[in-house]
Write a structure and sequence with these properties.
The chain is an all-alpha fold and about 60 residues long. The protein contains two helices and no strands.
Length: about 60
């Protein structure tokens, strides 16, 4: 019957709305919180890079 189809469509819409609400209310804040927990205070780009130690050679030095 059309009433049963309307109920099914309503339940599907309700599930979609609740999924979106849970995503925005729980998942995104938790993801941002976890990223804040693992990122260091200073940016890695601000720290000077050390040259690699060992037997590594640049490609330009070998090609030339």
């Amino acid at each position: 019957s059309w009433w049963a189809k309307l109920v099914v469509v309503g339940l599907v819409l309700f599930a979609g709305v609740m999924a979106a609400a849970l995503y925005h209310g729980v998942e995104e804040p938790a993801r941002q919180w976890m990223r804040r927990m693992i990122e260091p205070k200073g940016s890695r780009a601000a720290q000077p890079a050390e040259p690699p130690a060992g037997r590594l050679q640049s490609v330009a030095a070998r090609a030339g």
